């Protein structure tokens, strides 16, 4: 059966204004448009996650909400995690290992550098960075999220914003 993970970096964000905390930065206008374009693109590809988890940072939260409108089915909600902001590979792995087993496809929206670092750990592939709005799709033959660890997943594709963005 296997499992599938989509790691998505939040869309383009505004620069912080004086005194603003980094986690309070909002999406720029083009970031909002790109997030909606990504949502449509994923919907057209048939992505229908069982769960959508997101960092609670404003730019990630807004990206998640825009995606959820298109790809989450009825009765499903976005789950926000404070731990996904300034996270670590260890925390990400713990979160993945504790996902509900009934979930087959999960989307996680977060930040650099932890998303590419986690993908590197899970797949053994060098990723280095993930551009704003970029998507990394991973799969595994493992039947349980608790079985996911180093080099147990395969990097299937990288979807750059240039693939879906028309702005």
Number of domains: 1
Radius of gyration: 15 Å
**In sequence order, what are the helices and strands, one letter per element?**
EHEHEHEHEEH
The total strand number stands at 6
Write down the CATH class. Alpha Beta
Largest sheet: 6 strands, mixed
Q: Order of strands across the widest beta sheet? A: 3-2-4-1-5-6
Overall geometric form: globular
Total number of helical segments?
5
Unreliable residue runs: none
Structural descriptors:
167 residues; alpha/beta; Rossmann fold; 20% strand
Task: Offer a quick outline of the entry.
The chain has 5 helices and 6 strands, in the order E-H-E-H-E-H-E-H-E-E-H. The protein has helices at residues 29-44, 58-71, 89-97, 114-123, 161-164; strands at 3-9, 51-55, 78-81, 105-110, 135-140, 154-159. Strand 2 (51-55), helix 2 (58-71) and strand 3 form a beta-alpha-beta unit.
Which helices and strands occur, and which strands form pairs?
Blueprint: E1 3-9, H1 29-44, E2 51-55, H2 58-71, E3 78-81, H3 89-97, E4 105-110, H4 114-123, E5 135-140, E6 154-159, H5 161-164
Parallel strand pairs: 1-4, 2-3, 2-4
Antiparallel strand pairs: 1-5, 5-6
Helix pairs in contact: 1-2, 3-4
Give an overview of the whole structure:
The protein has a single domain (3-164), classed as 3-Layer(aba) Sandwich (Rossmann fold). Helices cover 32% and strands 20% of the residues. It has 5 helices and 6 strands. It has a 6-stranded mixed beta sheet, sandwiched between helices. The chain has 167 residues and is an alpha/beta fold. The protein has helices spanning 29-44, 58-71, 89-97, 114-123, 161-164, and strands spanning 3-9, 51-55, 78-81, 105-110, 135-140, 154-159. Helix 1 (29-44) packs parallel to helix 2 (58-71) and helix 3 (89-97) crosses helix 4 (114-123). It starts with a strand and ends with a helix. The radius of gyration is 15 Å and the shape is globular.
């Amino acid at each position: 059966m296997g499992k599938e993970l989509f790691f998505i970096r939040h869309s383009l964000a505004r620069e912080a204004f004086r005194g603003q905390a980094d986690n309070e930065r909002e999406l720029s206008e083009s970031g909002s448009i790109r997030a909606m374009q990504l949502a449509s693109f994923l919907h057209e590809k048939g992505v229908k996650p069982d769960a959508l988890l997101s960092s609670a940072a404003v730019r990630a939260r807004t990206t998640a909400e825009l995606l959820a409108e298109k790809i989450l089915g009825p009765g499903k909600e976005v789950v926000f995690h404070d731990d996904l902001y300034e996270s670590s590979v260890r925390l990400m792995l713990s979160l993945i290992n504790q996902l509900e087993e009934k979930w087959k496809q999960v989307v996680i929206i977060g930040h650099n550098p932890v998303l590419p670092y986690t993908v590197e750990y899970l797949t053994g592939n060098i990723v280095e960075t993930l551009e704003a709005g970029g998507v990394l799709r991973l799969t595994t033959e493992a039947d349980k999220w608790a079985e996911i660890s180093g080099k147990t997943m395969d990097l299937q594709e990288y979807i750059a914003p240039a693939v879906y963005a028309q702005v």
